[in-house]
């Protein structure tokens, strides 16, 4: 056989086994509603993929197709390289154990202790008691809840309940952790600590995580890649920093909402579309372009005034992502045009927001 053919086939096989999840053109209708309308995506081993969408976008249907609770009308669902969408219940059982799940409302059994909740997946697998207790103790240590082993869920805070949920999801050493709005019922501080724990587990154990959320803040703090879904379709997909820096679709921009820097409301309220003595620009710059001394270069290249009225440089996935609001005084259209041309030549995106009489 052709050596080149063997090498490329092996490379393709290897790439396929690196994908913990691979969805191919998934479609699922409910009557007139296309809940999934041709979803294709992969989740690579060790990565955190965030799926975000508004209510009704198709997120739950997608999750249900992944764990075999829903069958797509057409398309394929590969988990660790195995197509599962046509399997019967018996064949699905061992594959479901490869997927741990955490939920918005934790789904703990109130009549069981914390350690018994954590060990439950192992009990279902028929593991001996000593092994179950040992694993539960390890996992409670991992989620910093060892002292609550004998407590009942009712005596725990929301954050502690979710830690138990995470420990239980990891009990059977899954290949994939599915998180379905796992922080939506928690306050901001507890949300941060749960997300930090998930990120830690992702790094320490190399665990692959697919998380579903309607909150961009969740995506920003934990995901490597994001897929935005709307009306059953992926409308945008990419590394988190680049989607935050340069959202391509209106839906993404809307979901980003206040997570992206905005002009302070008191200044935004004074913007006029066509008159005023100063022009206010929004300048977005990210990645390599944001490492350059953009403003001093602008001042050197284009004589004449401009002022910074708001903004700054943030870091997402260690990439600089900046938004600057500049105000350019005067009615000299060519000065304004030169500034815009210079900024665009430095890979910045520039938007004229309007005009003000006095920006500060
Ligand atoms: N069993 C069902 N029968 C009829 N319609 C359904 C069913 N399941 C989902 N749908 C419809 O499919 C679309 C996608 O629903 P889905 O629950 O997947 O969205 P979602 O993004 O998870 O929403 P939410 O964030 O509100 O949970 C919606 O229009 C919903 O009404």
In short:
One of its GO terms (biological process) is amino acid transport. With 360 residues, the chain is an alpha/beta fold.
Task: Give a structural overview.
Helices cover 37% and strands 29% of the residues. With 360 residues, the chain is an alpha/beta fold. The protein folds into two domains: 10-258, Rossmann fold; 265-356, Alpha-Beta Plaits, CATH 3.30.70.260. Strand 1 (19-30) and strand 2 (33-44) form a beta hairpin. Helix 4 (114-124) runs parallel beside helix 6, helix 5 crosses helix 6 (158-170) and helix 6 runs parallel beside helix 7 (188-205). Bound molecules: adenosine-5'-triphosphate (ATP). Adenosine-5'-triphosphate binds next to strand 2 and helix 2. It comes from Mesorhizobium australicum (strain HAMBI 3006 / LMG 24608 / WSM2073). Keywords: Amino-acid transport, ATP-binding, Cell membrane, Membrane, Nucleotide-binding, Translocase, Transport. Belongs to the ABC transporter superfamily. Residues 21-256 form the ABC transporter domain.
Which ligands appear in the coordinates? adenosine-5'-triphosphate
State the secondary-structure class: alpha/beta
Helical coverage, percent range:
25-40%
Radius of gyration: 25 Å
Classified in CATH, the superfamily of the largest domain is: P-loop containing nucleotide triphosphate hydrolases
Principal-axes shape call = elongated
Number of helices: 13
Number of strands: 14
CATH hierarchy class name of the largest domain: Alpha Beta
What is the straight-line distance between the termini?
73 Å
Flag low-confidence runs: none
Major sheet summary line: 6 strands, mixed
């Amino acid at each position: 056989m052709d050596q080149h053919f063997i090498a490329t086939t092996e490379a393709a096989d290897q790439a396929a086994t690196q994908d913990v999840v691979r969805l191919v053109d998934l479609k699922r209708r409910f009557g007139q509603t296309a809940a999934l309308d041709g979803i294709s995506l992969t989740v690579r081993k060790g990565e955190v993929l965030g799926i975000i969408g508004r209510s009704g976008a198709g997120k739950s249907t997608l999750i249900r197709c992944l764990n075999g609770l829903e069958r797509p009308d057409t398309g394929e669902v590969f988990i660790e390289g195995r197509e599962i969408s046509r399997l019967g219940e018996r064949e699905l059982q061992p594959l479901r154990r490869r997927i741990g799940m955490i939920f918005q409302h934790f789904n703990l059994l109130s009549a069981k202790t914390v350690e018994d909740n954590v060990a439950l997946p192992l009990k279902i697998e028929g593991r001996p008691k000593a092994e179950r207790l040992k694993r539960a103790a390890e996992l409670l240590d991992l989620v910093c809840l060892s002292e609550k082993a004998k407590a009942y869920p009712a005596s725990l805070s929301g954050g502690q309940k979710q830690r138990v949920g995470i420990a239980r999801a990891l009990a059977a050493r899954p290949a994939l952790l599915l998180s379905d709005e796992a922080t939506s019922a928690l306050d901001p501080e507890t949300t941060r600590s749960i997300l930090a724990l998930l990120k830690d587990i992702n790094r320490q154990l190399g665990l692959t995580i697919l998380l579903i959320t309607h909150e961009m803040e969740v995506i920003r703090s934990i995901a490597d890649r994001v897929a935005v879904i709307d009306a059953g379709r992926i409308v945008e997909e990419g590394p988190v920093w680049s989607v935050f820096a340069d959202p391509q679709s209106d839906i993404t921009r809307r979901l980003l909402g206040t997570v992206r820097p905005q002009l302070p409301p008191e200044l935004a309220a004074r913007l006029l579309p066509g008159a005023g003595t100063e022009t206010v620009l929004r300048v977005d710059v990210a990645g390599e372009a944001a490492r350059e001394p953009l403003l001093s270069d602008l001042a050197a290249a284009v004589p004449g005034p401009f002022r910074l009225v708001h903004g700054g440089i943030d870091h997402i996935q260690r990439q600089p992502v900046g938004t600057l609001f500049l105000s350019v005084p005067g009615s000299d259209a060519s000065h304004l045009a030169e500034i815009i041309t210079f900024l665009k030549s430095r890979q910045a995106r520039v938007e004229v927001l309007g005009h003000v009489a006095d920006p500060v």
